[in-house]
Design a protein that fits this description.
Layout: E1 6-9, H1 13-24, E2 29-32, H2 36-45, E3 61-64, H3 67-71, E4 76-79, H4 83-93, E5 103-105, H5 118-125, H6 128-131, E6 134-138, H7 143-147, E7 152-158, H8 161-171, E8 176-181, H9 184-206, H10 211-231, H11 236-239, H12 242-253, H13 258-267, H14 272-279, H15 284-299, H16 304-314, H17 319-327, H18 337-344
Parallel strand pairs: 1-2, 1-4, 2-3, 4-5, 5-6, 7-8
Antiparallel strand pairs: 6-7
Helix pairs in contact: 4-5, 9-10, 9-12, 9-13, 9-15, 9-16, 10-12, 13-14, 15-16, 16-17
């Protein structure tokens, strides 16, 4: 099979790791970045020293600051810009994006202003001919470990089965296995919400609490993800898979998780502004916590962990008080009747 160009939009750690996977397979990859100086450094050193240091990039990968250059002749387009920048970039590429190729979103989050997930943002901003080819990549996957070719499994969700199959085959390698899904809503919800729960998990670790607390937090966090996913039309089974439980376990327990790190430092007593200034990377869960809380209120979905994370991040509530308030909630069933009925369908 002849080489087919791929445009990867977003030069952070995750975008660079995905671009490396595709380039390692032999396809020419153009990695777009807002920063011309970063493009120059990547092209000179064949390494993204800013966001993915120590990962050699193949010569089939080229960085560019020019969106038209990135998109021209692309046989697949991959969005990997932060969630708060996805709409802006989608508007920028709308007039130039190929309309007959797969368009993959690998960004996880909920837009603050509109309370839209990335599938809704891209559906709204891209031409209809391009939007019909959208697919969504999610699952437990640290960029550093993928770049090291450590065995990884993710899920691809799409409304078009042919698009889903094409994307799966384009990304598949001996170290990256993909599963397909038609539950876009569930996959998108799991990918966004795990970052919020990871902040909570990091915070309880920062407090020095034990395994009992962490297990309870992750499990009840998963219940909140499931409730929101089902309210959006997704399924509980999807949330039990790679995009839900898989990504949640990784992000809540892995030391490479930026969101867990934010929570851990909050649990240690540091202030959010100081933590974010020292992080050096985007922690999607900080912005998503606000969107998720606002969305839960709008959709009348009870999400107490999300509510407490929002209070710690945006209302200066102490982590200790948040834990006490969660434990003091009124007693009730583990699963409400609405969730049980939805799970049985």
């Amino acid at each position: 099979m002849s080489a087919r160009k791929v445009a990867v939009l977003g030069s952070g750690a995750w975008g660079t790791a995905l671009a490396k996977v595709l380039a390692d397979k032999g396809d020419p990859v153009t990695l777009w970045s807002r920063r011309s100086d970063l493009c120059d450094q990547i092209n000179r050193d064949h390494e993204n020293a800013r966001y993915l240091p120590g990962a050699p990039l193949p010569i089939t990968l080229r960085a560019t600051h020019d969106l038209r250059d990135a998109l021209e002749g692309a046989s697949m387009v991959v969005f990997v810009v932060p969630s708060h920048g996805t709409r802006e970039v989608a508007k920028m590429v709308a007039a130039h994006i190929p309309t007959d190729v797969p368009v993959v979103s690998a960004t996880k989050g909920i837009e603050n202003e509109s309370l839209m997930f990335m599938d809704e943002v891209l559906d709204e901003e891209l031409p209809a001919a391009a939007a019909k080819n959208l697919a969504y990549l999610s699952g437990p996957s640290f960029a550093k470990e993928l770049a090291q070719k450590q065995p990884t499994a993710v899920v691809i969700a799409a409304r078009d089965a042919k698009v889903c199959d094409d994307v799966m085959r384009r990304f598949h390698t001996p170290y990256l296995r993909l599963y397909n899904s038609d539950d876009v809503s569930g996959v998108e919800c799991g990918g966004a919400m795990k970052n919020v729960v990871a902040i909570a998990a990091g915070a309880i670790d920062g407090l020095g609490l034990g395994h009992n607390t962490r297990a309870a937090l992750i499990t009840r966090g998963l219940a909140e993800v499931a409730k929101l996913a089902m309210a959006r039309g997704g399924t509980a089974l999807t949330v039990a898979g790679l995009a839900g439980m898989g990504d949640l376990v990784l992000t809540c327990t892995g030391e490479l998780s930026r969101n867990r790190t934010v929570g851990f430092e909050l649990g240690k007593g540091r202030k959010l502004g100081e933590i974010l200034a020292s992080l050096g990377h985007v922690a999607e869960g900080v912005k998503t916590a606000k969107s998720a809380y606002d969305l839960s209120v709008k959709m009348k979905v009870d999400m107490p962990i999300t509510r407490e994370v929002h209070a710690v991040l945006y209302e200066d509530k102490s982590v200790e008080q948040a834990v006490m308030d969660l434990m003091a909630r009124e007693l009730g069933p583990e699963f409400d009747s609405i969730a049980m009925r939805a799970a049985k369908r």
